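Recall the central idea of this unit: under ordinary conditions, the amino acid sequence of a chain determines the structure it adopts. In this exercise we apply that idea directly, starting from the sequence alone.
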Amino acid sequence: MLKEECIRKAMELDWPITCLEETDSTNLRLKEIARSGDLRPRMLCAESQTAGRGRLGRSFLSPGESGMYMSLLLPLPKDALPLTIRAAVAVCRAVEEETGKALSIKWVNDLFWQGKKVCGILAEGVGNMAVLGIGLNLRMPKGGFPGVPIAGALETDAERERLMGRVAFHVKRTLDEDGQAVLSFYRQRMFLMEKEITFLQNGQEKTARVLGVDEAGGLVVLCDGKEEILRTGEVSIGSHQFLEYKQPQ
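Accordingly, the structure predicted from this sequence is:
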């Protein structure tokens, strides 16, 4: 069972913490708490999830003892930079701090290690607050991740409670930090720069080349000879381009 005192020591924040053996979804349970009227910043985490959720309605496999599954109830950022971008930076900082591994970011907030996705982030609004869910694969489960060839794991023995606490610490830090400093880190780790991507627009698949990330976290692309900014949605990148990119040092 996850130990609250170990998480709190690493977190360095006086937030309520709820640790569960198993739940359907940490985001769902934390949203229930928020809707009950308790809107204090807090953490809810679980050993495993039976119905973990990702972006666009996807499921997130969350077996026991192989991953870190947590949700945070937070105020919304005070500027235009989205919480999900801040969270991606926070997880990168915490993982590097605890394991020495430098993760890469695929816009908007998927985190990769050695060409495999190891972390998913999901933010959902609850009134004027946000529930931020973070799932990080620490070790490959027996049988791997069926049907998800892009999924991987950090393969680290880092202590889960300490890593959870440090992630929460760095999320809070990015909320207090100047957005441009956060964005500078994000741009350095975002590996889509100058890559060719595909995305859906009005039901039509389009191809574009990535130019950068704007001040509000939008993906700047060159599509059909025109510059466009993608604010939401899913982008895809060819597998051969994964082989070309270098892991940040």
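Residues 240-245 have pLDDT under 50 and may be disordered.
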